[in-house]
Design goal:
About 70% of the residues lie in helices and about 5% in strands. The protein has about 140 residues and is mainly alpha-helical. It is elongated.
Length: about 140
């Protein structure tokens, strides 16, 4: 159930990243998001080309989160790494997209927090140095 929920959250977050691509490329109009060349709360002027290049970053972020979602659903070992890289990169994108993308900062921090909490619980619950083979040896020795 947790993997399903995390995969769903990653999918939704990835789809929302597409807004940052389709708006500056004028592929679609999204209510509440108008094309702009201003970034970082209006402190940086990107120009039309810069806004479109940033849009490519949003597209790559969307693809990364969608791939991470598939990895989480499949239980792939690489999914958590991709999720962490995606969230860190997304924080940078959200800063450039602020104020419109400010809510994404909270989502990314929540994803990183969930990932960190999961890793911490995994570390507490079991000795990370012990493998399945080690457990069978320990069981034989205890007999």
């Amino acid at each position: 159930m947790i993997r399903f929920a995390l995969g769903l959250a990653l999918t939704l977050h990835g789809l929302i990243h597409l807004i940052g691509f389709v708006v500056p490329w004028r592929i679609a109009e999204v209510p509440g998001f108008s094309p702009t060349t201003a970034a970082v709360w209006g402190h940086v002027e990107l120009g039309p080309l810069g806004a479109q290049l940033l849009g490519i970053g949003w597209l790559l972020g969307a693809l990364g989160f969608l791939a991470a979602a598939v990895g989480v659903w499949l239980g792939a070992a690489w999914a958590h790494t991709l999720m962490a890289i995606g969230a860190a990169a997304s924080i940078v994108l959200c800063i450039f997209g602020a104020p419109a993308a400010s809510a994404g900062l909270v989502v990314n921090l929540a994803l990183l927090g969930a990932l960190g909490a999961g890793l911490l619980m995994d570390f507490i619950v079991r000795d990370p140095a012990m493998t399945v083979a080690d457990e069978s040896v320990v069981m034989v020795r205890k007999r």
